[in-house]
Amino acid sequence: MACLETGFATEKSLAEKMVGREVIFRIERTRVEKGKPILQVENLSVLSDQGFLALDGVSFSIREGEIFGIAGISGNGQHELAEVLAGLRKAEGGQVILAGKDITHSSSLERWQMGVGHIPCERIEVGSIGDFSLVENIMMNFYFDGNVSRRGILDYGKIRKLTEEIVSEYGVAAPSPDTKAKNLSGGNLQRLILARVLSRRPRLLIANLPTQGLDVGATEFVRNKLMEAKKEKAGILLISEDLDEILSLSDWVAPIYEGEFMGIIPGGEARRESVGAMMAGLRVKGSET
Amino acid sequence: MWEFIARSLEASTIFTFAALGELINQRSGVLNVGIEGVMLFGATLGFITAQSTGSYLLGFLVGVAIGGLLGFLHGFFSVTLGADQVVVGMGIWILGFGLTTYIGNPYTGPLGMERIPTILGLSPFFYVGIALVVVSWFVLSKTSLGLRIRSVGEDPSVAEVSGIDVTKTRYLCVTIGGMLMGLSGAIYSLFYNPVWNYNFLMGWGFIALALVFFSMWNPLILLGGSLLFGTLWQLSLNPQLVLPGVLSRYIWRTVPFVITIGVLLIISTKWLRIRWGAAKPEALAMPYIKE
Amino acid sequence: MRIGSYELKLEKRLTLTGWEAAIISILAIIFALALFSFIFILAEINPLFAYQEIFSYAFANPYGLPLTINRFIFLLLCTSAFIIPFRAGLWNIGMPGQLYFGALGAFAVLFAFGVKEFHTSDLSPEILIPLMLIAAALGGVGLGAIAGFLKGKFNINEIVVTMIINFIAFWLVAHMIKEGGPFMNPGGRGESFELPPSVYAPLIMGIPFTIFLALGIAVLLFFLFAKTKIGYQIKAHGHNPAAARYAGISTFKIPLLVFIMGGAVAGLAGYHYFAAVPGVYKISRNYGYFGDLAFYGIICGLISQGNPLAAIPVALLFGGLSIGGRFVQGKLNMGFGVDYALLGVLMITLVAFQFFYRYKIAWTKTGDLLESRRRPLSNG
After folding, report:
1. How close does chain B come to C154, measured CA to CA in Å?
2. Contacts A50 to B, Cβ<8 Å
């Protein structure tokens, strides 16, 4: 523990003292060769739970190795977007195409099998099963895998080994693989979820508020993992309420307001003020796609 | 014909009381699936008391009291201990169904008392029932008490922060709800069908539960539902009024139940589903744990 | 709360081992039996004497023991039928209706082969009995599927649906076996036609072969939940349906599947009681009593925490208690319904003990209290 005189404490140095090492706040947008489009969304419309239009004819595409950042205040359709892409919500109109294949009507199971990965914003309610052990939680993404499930019988031994490996790789702090997920802290739970989803090497990763509520160390870890996935040519849809995060990580920034994209701006050109304004519904000159 | 209408209205009264009790429960966020158990206790103990003391008043009072006690018990397990409310409700149902079979057995048979005087050919309870429905509707939608109850059922943590004692409100509602359920059982055994037999409620408690879902937690719609079901029930006992000679009387007995399922299906269709979901108390059946 | 120099506190449990759960369950049963002794006391009977009579008749008497075993088979099947949807987070209280339809299915096979008129059949039992079993399972499946479908597709509360279907099924059986219904016994008497001896279920040492069915199903279920993909999906749905859905598990197929499976097993319970138990061999007048008994399956399922193997000893115990209870009711001149009352007391005790699955009583010596409140030494 060190005490800093307030005069000398900057955001960066405070964070370093908390975490104990240098923290990279602005992650260098990695130069990765862009591949072919992994996701194409055309004119997608989706209803909210209340029956209103949450997404209104949205179109965009993401290429391999790209991070597509959705900037917006919660409630403007971004969560419905994550759900419809993951197969958890019905599309009222439009198309979702994954690597050239129309998956608009595919089930969420089919999408997992086709290489879509989804990190949901609700870690506890949706992303994990509290009463299940770490092993059983990892199984959530592997029970349908041909290597793990043979003739209806699951190879728990294999998953146990996998769990041990990825738990150490992702730094999930837990006494044993049999620990129940509900006993994990928020940061550790997110590490577990990330471990589970990323170890499948998804081609398209939907990351919905991946760093929300996490401490500085965990946040940095998650962002690094996203960059690693990007280097492995995954196409990433990043939804975040942290504007700095979006601006520093994304190759494309799309502010969302009331179910529509106010623009799609290349990462290098996006500015806080203009993006912030678009998030509030203002169209800024020169930012139309 | 009048006889048929009168009996239908009598039957509907019982549904009204029981379902209204559960509606008040559910509005405050507590689910009691054991309505049938509470009704059986109210019916059996009320019957025994009335027959043994010769006093209808005592019989009804006992029915109300045991209902309130059971409601309170449900509250204790569900609110204070935070147990799974479905398990508690099932427990109360089986407790009721099991114990009353044994306790009431020596009293099997007719009540043997002079019938309660009727007003305009109908039991006084029919009118009380309608009054209660209107009062409940008014209290729930127009008074501050009603607002307190509803907020506890929608978002208890917010209610708590605004100064409402969630625990006390829920206990109040489950006890009053239980009293109404016990009373409905007593009405059944002391007026509508004053012949004791084990398990003689024949599933009315579960129909009342379905009625609460069907009513979308609105007491006025609930009244309509119980009128409908009371009529259906009488019809199933007297099919000759509608379709003489067709189908055995046993098949007719299944009709109210089949229609109950039909009704549940209707409220699940797309058009109604969203409105139903919106009317449902958000915190229903979720234990509230004070931070 | 203080007792002497110890402080008692209620603490939320972090873990619950199988042994701890078993001990709580056993304590619950003992407590319930103790509570139930009030019923005996009120009837002016010494409870210890009553229990002694119950257990010795149920387990040590040459007439009582076979009854207990038959009851045990019936209860184990009902419990398994409850457990399957229970693990999926759903309540199957439709066992009575499902078993009624199971019985109807089995008798329908006989009816179809003209057994009712001729009171015998050309077809050998090797063909008829398996057919009866299949029909019984299908009868239960039919009813279960309705509840499972309504739940999976429309999220309609399965408790209301299964209970309502119970009543529908009850009256349908009445229609079939009473007052001129198709299965009515030619002699009237409000019961179904009788099984011809050639189709009696084979007995092994006096016990119907259905015991292997019941035990086998329990073992299979244990294996299903422990090792299989389907079992995993069911468990996931049971713990967190939203997370299960996220993981690609169908929240339509799982409810439908578990109710179909549960219905099938309950249907077999119907076959067992009405077509396999010596001395019965028909759908009796008091068939409703067996529907009511099926509710013991709920309690067994809850006590065994949904573990199909743990359900075996519990079902045996309850089989004995209900047979012994019936016996004692007659012998000691108690009113009708002793086994019903036992059912009720057991259930409410279990509900109360649910609390202990989640909280435990922790002791600390009051001297230690201050110690435990000191901060642990930090490493600076």
Report:
1. 6
2. 274, 278
Q: Which residues of A touch B277 (CB under 8 A)?
A: 49
Closest CA to C268 of C83, C49, C95, C44: C95
Q: Which helix (H) or strand (E) holds A37?
A: strand A37-47
- Give the amino acid at B24: I
A45 has pLDDT over 50: yes
Give the separation between CA A275 and CA A243, rounded to whole angstroms.
Answer: 8
Q: Does B145 touch chain C (CB under 8 A)?
A: no
C230/A152 touch (CB, cutoff 8 Å), yes or no: yes
C232–A130 CB contact, under 8 Å: no
Q: Mention every residue, 6+ apart, whose C-beta is less than 8 A from residue A106.
A: A87, A114
Q: Report whether CATH 3.40.50.1000 matches the domain B2-279.
A: no
What is the fold, at CATH topology level, of the domain defined by A37-115+203-289?
Answer: Rossmann fold (3.40.50)
Kindly determine whether residue A125 and residue C240, on different chains, have CB atoms separated by under 8 Å: yes
* Chain B (257-286) residues lying within 8 Å, Cβ to Cβ, of chain C: 257-258, 260-261, 264-265, 268, 273
Contacts of B274 in chain A (CB under 8 A): 50-51
Q: What is the pLDDT of residues C136-167, one digit of tens each?
A: 999 999 999 999 999 999 999 999 999 999 99
Residue A206 near residue A118, CB atoms below 8 Å: yes
String of DSSP letters for B37-102: HHHHHHHHHHHHHHHHH--HHHHHHHHHHHHHHHHHHHHIIIIIS---HHHHHHHHHHHHHHHHHH
Structure tokens at A104: 């608009």
Residues 6+ apart with CB under 8 A from A92: A45, A46, A47, A53
Q: What are the residue ranges spanned by the domains of chain B?
A: 2-279
Nearest residue in chain A measured CA to CA from B279: A50
Q: Cβ contact (<8 Å) for B210 and C160?
A: yes
Interface with A, mutate which of C15, C224, C229 (most A CBs under 10 A): C229
- Cα–Cα distance, B50 to A31 (Å, whole number): 87
Q: Which pLDDT belongs to residue A287? A: 45
**Residue A141 is nearest to which of C230, C235, C247, comparing CB atoms?**
C247
- pLDDT for the residue numbered A7: 45
Cβ(B35)–Cβ(B174) below 8 Å: no
Rounded to whole angstroms, how far apart are CA atoms C187 and C191? 9
Query: What is the per-residue pLDDT across A81-97, written as a single tens digit (0 to 9) for each?
Result: 999 999 999 999 999 99
Interchain pair A143, C246: CB under 8 A: no
Domains and CATH numbers, chain C: 10-361 (1.10.3470)
Strands (DSSP E) contained in chain C are 2-3, 6-12, 203-204, 207-208, 359-365
Does the pLDDT value for residue C116 go beyond 90?
no
Strands A101-102 and A265-266: unpaired
Picking from B88, B105, B258, the nearest residue to C335 by CB comes out as: B105
- Which chain B residue has the Cα nearest residue C350? B91
Task: Kindly report, as residue ranges, where domains of CATH 3.40.50.300 are found in chain A.
Answer: 37-115+203-289
Is the Cβ pair B264, C150 closer than 8 Å? yes
Q: Nearest chain C Cα to B270, which residue?
A: C154
Q: Where are the beta strands (DSSP E) in C70-202?
A: none
> With a cut of 70, which residues of chain B have pLDDT below it?
290-291
Q: What is the pLDDT of residues C200-251, one digit of tens each?
A: 889 998 899 999 999 999 999 999 999 999 999 999 999 999 999 999 999 9
Handedness of CA B129, B135, B136, B137 (dihedral sign): positive
Chain B residue numbers touching A51 (CB-CB < 8 A): 274
Place of tokens 């759903």: C90
Q: Note whether C239 contacts A129, CB cutoff 8 Å.
A: yes
B192 three-state secondary structure: helix
Q: Structure pTM?
A: 0.89
